[in-house]
Amino acid sequence: EGNKKESRGALIVLEGLDRSGKSSQCSRLVSYLEGEGLSAELWRFPDRTTNVGQMISAYLTNASQLDDHTIHLLFSANRWEKRSLMETKLKSGTTLIVDRYSYSGVAFSSAKGLDIDWCKAPENGLLAPDLVAYLDISPDKAAERGGYGDERYEKLEFQQKVAEHYKVLHDASWKSIVHDVIDINSGDNDDDNLAVLAEIAHKHDKGKALEAVHEDVLGKAGVLTSARARRKRAAASS
Ligand code: TMP
Ligand code: MG
């Protein structure tokens, strides 16, 4: 293989309830990394600019109605349509700071009562993050922050359910599917939070081949398992 492996970027996901402060932490982190001379981009899901994203946006703004399973699959499709571009960026050395990812997909839909394994299934094979940072805030406190807008899920009662489902995911699987998980207390000092995130971003920006990282990460997972890792496990146990 020689020295051909280029340094890849890190895939860093921020998760949390609506109004947990993800978006501002994401942009602060990107600015910080850029200031350090690293290539970094801010991404977000849903990406409302695509055709699928426009369907999602219409649903969220109550301009359209969709069956719970249907909207779940659209959120997932919205990540799938960006997968290859994400991979290209990461391989070319750009770190992606992503505002919501699969964990939002599973937490929000399972909070509606959909089966959690059914919710996880379409996420199989998406890129596994190096880090998920969960911005921990109580639903009440989030609701107080400038209030919610008019979007479909921005209601205290529902956000309370989402928080419970994030917790289920956190306890049951995050630790086995990502290299690192950190909790950030969203009420704490923003500068301290940024310092923690920045340190972790650096740690992951160390040039592992993306493929190897996926396999490693996905291979350990009981969920969100790629077909490839499954085949590998099957081969190892036979
Ligand atoms: P946003 O406020 O970050 O733009 O996200 C819009 C809403 O969509 C938010 O309430 C979280 C929800 N959501 C899902 O239900 N499933 C998903 O897969 C994603 C990415 C977001
Ligand atoms: Mg929102």
What is the second-level CATH architecture? 3-Layer(aba) Sandwich
The quaternary structure here is single chain
Spatial arrangement of strands, main beta sheet: 2-3-1-4-5
Q: Could you list the spans in which at least 5 consecutive residues all have pLDDT below 50?
A: 1-5, 205-233
Topology overview:
Blueprint: E1 11-16, H1 22-35, E2 40-44, H2 51-60, H3 68-91, E3 95-99, H4 102-111, H5 116-120, E4 131-136, H6 139-144, H7 156-177, E5 180-185, H8 190-204, H9 210-219, H10 227-236
Parallel strand pairs: 1-3, 1-4, 2-3, 4-5
The protein binds thymidine-5'-phosphate and magnesium ion.
Thymidine-5'-phosphate (TMP) binds near residues 46, 108 and 153.
Q: What does this protein structure show overall?
A:
It is globular and about 45 Å long. It has ten helices and five strands; from the N terminus they run βαβααβααβααβααα. A five-stranded parallel beta sheet has the order 2-3-1-4-5, with helices on both faces. It is an alpha/beta fold. The protein has one domain: P-loop containing nucleotide triphosphate hydrolases (Rossmann fold, 3-Layer(aba) Sandwich), CATH 3.40.50.300. Helix 1 packs across helix 8, helix 2 packs across helix 3 and helix 4 crosses helix 7. The longest helix has 24 residues. Thymidine-5'-phosphate binds next to helix 4.
